[in-house]
Design a protein that fits this description.
With 197 residues, the protein is of the alpha/beta class. The protein has helices at 43-50, 85-92, 100-109, 125-139, 155-171; strands spanning 3-14, 17-28, 33-36, 62-65, 70-73, 143-147, 174-179, 191-194. The strands form 2 sheets. The chain has a 5-stranded parallel sheet, with helices on both faces. α5 links the parallel β6 (143-147) and β7 (174-179). α4 (125-139) runs parallel beside α5. The protein starts with a strand and ends with a strand.
Length: 197
C-alpha cells in the first residue's frame, strides 16, 4: 500500500479558529476519494492541505506525505489573468517537457485552441475552469484534487471533466473531489470523508 497522504489528529484552522478537528486520514495512490460537507465545514481547507496549498494553522497535527505530483483545481482560479492561456500553460507546465503538438491536441479537445493567445482576464468563469481542466489533463498528476467540480461548467465542460475522471481511473491515477454532496462523478470511491459528522 503506497500512501500519498496520512494524518493523525489532523486539526486545521486560521489563527486560533479551528475549522477541522482531530481527523485521521490515510489516502492511497490509485484510489479515489470524495470530501463532502455543508458550507463552512472545511472542505476547501482539507483539500488545500492535501494538495499542499494550505497556508493556515496545522496546530499539533501529524502529517506525512509521499513524494508524488499533486495538482489542485480550487474554488478560486489559479490562472494568471494578465497572461494569455498559452503563457499560463507554459508557466504552469514548464517542467513537464510536453510536446507542442500534444499541447495543441489537448487545447482542441477542450475547444480552447482559438483562445490560446487571449488574455485569461477576458475569459468567463466557465472558460477559466475549462482551461484549468485542460492543464490538469496535460500535466496528468499522480493525484488531482478538484474543489466543487461542476461549478461554472456548462454541459460540454462537465462532460469533458467526467471524461478526464474516467481516463484517470483507467490509468490508475488518484482523484479527490470536494463538494456539498456526493455527485457520482467517479465510478469507484475508496472512502468518503464526511465533514458533517
Amino acid at each position: 500500500m503506497s500512501l500519498f497522504f496520512k494524518s493523525k489528529n489532523l486539526s486545521l484552522g486560521y489563527g486560533n479558529q479551528l475549522v477541522i478537528s482531530n481527523k485521521d486520514i490515510s489516502l492511497e495512490l490509485s484510489k479515489n476519494y470524495e470530501i463532502v460537507g455543508k458550507n463552512g465545514s472545511g472542505k476547501t481547507t482539507l483539500i488545500m492541505c492535501i494538495s499542499k496549498n494550505f497556508i493556515g494553522n496545522t496546530f499539533k497535527s501529524y502529517i506525512e506525505r509521499g513524494n508524488n505530483s499533486i495538482l489542485e483545481i480550487g474554488s478560486t482560479p489559479s490562472l494568471i489573468p494578465k497572461m494569455s492561456l498559452i503563457e499560463n500553460i507554459n508557466y504552469f507546465l514548464h517542467n513537464e517537457n510536453l510536446d507542442e503538438k500534444y499541447i495543441l491536441e489537448i487545447l482542441n479537445k477542450y475547444e480552447l485552441y482559438s483562445f490560446k493567445n487571449d488574455l485569461v482576464e477576458d475569459f468567463s468563469s466557465g472558460m477559466v475552469k475549462r482551461s484549468e481542466i485542460a492543464i490538469a489533463d496535460m500535466k496528468n498528476p499522480d493525484v488531482l484534487c478538484v474543489d466543487e467540480p461542476m461549478v461554472y461548467l456548462d454541459e460540454g465542460g462537465s462532460r469533458l471533466l467526467l471524461d478526464l475522471f474516467k481516463k484517470r481511473e483507467f490509468d490508475g491515477k488518484s482523484t479527490i473531489l470536494s463538494s456539498q454532496e456526493t455527485i457520482n462523478a467517479l465510478s469507484n470511491i475508496e472512502r468518503t470523508i464526511n465533514l458533517n459528522d
